[in-house]
Amino acid sequence: RGFTVSVIDYPEASNAMDLNRTVAVCNALQPDFIVSLHCDCSANESAQGAHVCYLSRKGLTMARCIAARLCELLPGRAETVVPRANLAILRKTHAPAVLVECGFLSNEADAAMLRDNLPGVASAIAQGVSDYFQS
Length: 135
Fold this sequence. Notes:
Layout: H1 15-29, E1 34-40, E2 51-54, H2 57-73, E3 81-83, H3 88-91, E4 97-104, H4 108-116, H5 118-134
Parallel strand pairs: 1-4, 2-3
Antiparallel strand pairs: 2-4
């Protein structure tokens, strides 16, 4: 869709080390926007649905664009766009950023969507990003 995408992940690192390295690389790359992808997990197996976290005004607009597409595939959350000031990827990066929670791995329906239709989930996120840059 005309975007350059960099995948940043350090699976061998602890969560804190992974996060610190990710923030450093994001700031060094100076991207136009950061989309950080995650999955939720809960002891409550009925917890379900995607949501998108943001901190900045640009982040809010991007979050709305992504949530509009992604939450059609992974419904269930009352709030699909959530302001969060305590997430380092949103707070410590220089570029506008969103954190996308792609459903709950602990919920059978969400897990099945991710397992069986990962290209559809990725496409929904990409279409949301495209919607943002076209608006």
